[in-house]
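quick one, two chains, predict together pls
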Amino acid sequence: DTAVSQTPKYLVTQMGNDKSIKCEQNLGHDTMYWYKQDSKKFLKIMFSYNNKELIINETVPNRFSPKSPDKAHLNLHINSLELGDSAVYFCASSQYVALAKNIQYFGAGTRLSVL
Amino acid sequence: EDQVTQSPEALRLQEGESSSLNCSYTVSGLRGLFWYRQDPGKGPEFLFTLYSAGEEKEKERLKATLTKKESFLHITAPKPEDSATYLCARGIREKLTFGTGTRLTIIP
């Protein structure tokens, strides 16, 4: 069983479209994250949720909206896609928010290509 | 702003040739230094967490060490299956700030 699963694995779309990426974790964790990894492999946090509550919201355009229907799911919706949104998006989860105990488990990533 | 710098950017070693990867950071107030391994097409996988200067942790051929301003990942007698990108991240304000990684290739 995959611990953190994301769908789809690949997403190719046109500029201006709206798309969603889904993430589910079966680890029973309280905290979930979205990261963006650019073409230079730089991994940067976008959002984190703890028990469905937004904890971290980095300086991400408001075209990006995370939604957490329950603590096992954290979806990412992106409006009006731009070329610069092309990247690999990773979902992750951890048992705790506190960094002292914060081992994060990552999904396999969603490669988004905006044409 | 927090900065985490990893060097070298890429490293090619012969099988069995030991070496070290470096991770340095600029902001004080460390709340954990993390090492992850990332294979192509996959998400990062946790390796180690270090919390205080002088701390060391080992796993198979890998040993991570921590000083006040940097961490090293020592690889002893590596095998081809150790080929991956190694990411370090520092913890601050309940988030991880990642470096850009070292792409390690072990040649049989």
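The mean pLDDT of chain A is 92.
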